[in-house]
Specification:
By secondary structure, this protein is α+β, with helices and mostly antiparallel strands. It has 10 helices and 11 strands. A hairpin with a 6-residue loop joins strand 8 and strand 9.
């Protein structure tokens, strides 16, 4: 279902559910998705069913994401995509085994929202823009593309500005204040660290506080080596969560930030 969502969001055209004709397959103005028996992206034909049984798991959604130039980011940052490829190409039993879970677990993860949208989509023959279901599908596609493109922008921003501070046996990621300041300065840092293979080495993060002139300090992956309740009584710390995973300080001085980190060290 996500395949027409993406194309609907990009092109705002009707969605027609039927088998394609030879003329449809030859017409590049008609996208033929998940049917038709061929993958020819220059004619907007995206079917995966003709691939051999031992082909790496790839579904029509994968082919559309490739065509839109966001597949690699989607595979890296959409945790649901690879299981969706397996489910579509290998079925629920093989996918459950690949995930290391019981087959019954797959059913327990089913969402009633997904079931309803899929059922209504399956019953439709033609969906037009401005119809409720078409708009829902378009929202899904638009949100996915926005997430991927916004995340890529954030990752590039972090890569350009972030610094790594070495402390004993681990690293601290420091993101300095820039102008203009991002809407959510800490967003994307975790994914950035994953993308460069440094997530396990970084114990804490320091990033601009969007609500003040100072910085936020937080544990990365809830690393136990830092407890920010240890600095809650410092005069320039105006917030420290009771569970110790995050604090806010008004200071913007690098030397003081490093001192606060040292005080928070367990």
């Amino acid at each position: 279902m996500r395949k027409p969502c993406l194309l609907a969001a990009v092109h705002r055209v009707p969605i027609v559910r039927r088998e394609p004709t030879a003329a449809d397959l030859a017409d590049p103005s008609i996208a033929v998705v998940d049917v038709g028996g061929e993958h020819v992206p220059e004619r907007h034909n995206f079917d995966h069913h003709q691939f051999p049984a031992d082909h790496p798991p790839v579904c029509a959604l994968s082919l559309v994401l490739q065509h839109l130039g966001v597949y690699e980011d989607a595979r890296q940052f959409c945790d649901w995509l690879e299981p969706a490829e397996w489910f579509d190409t290998r079925g629920p039993n093989v996918t459950a085994k690949w995930l290391g879970v019981d087959r019954s677990t797959m059913n327990k993860l089913s969402s009633p929202i997904d079931v309803t949208v899929l059922r209504r989509f399956a019953k439709a023959k033609r969906l037009e823009p401005d119809e409720p279901l078409w708009e829902i599908l378009s929202y899904i596609g638009a949100d996915l593309l926005e997430f991927l493109r916004d995340l890529r922008t954030r990752l590039d921003f972090v890569a350009q500005h972030a610094e790594m501070w070495r402390v004993d046996d681990h690293d601290i990621l420091f993101l300095p204040r820039t102008e203009p300041i991002p809407d959510d300065p800490s967003a994307g840092i975790g994914r950035y660290l994953e993308s460069i293979g440094r997530s396990s080495n970084v114990a804490a993060l320091i990033y601009p506080d969007r609500r003040g002139s100072g910085y936020g300090l937080s544990r990365h992956n809830d690393d136990p080596r830092y407890d920010f309740t240890r600095i809650e009584k410092e005069t320039d710390v105006h917030f420290a969560h009771a569970r110790g995973f995050v604090a806010k300080t008004s200071t913007a001085e690098i030397s003081r930030l490093k001192q606060l980190l040292s005080l928070a060290r367990v």
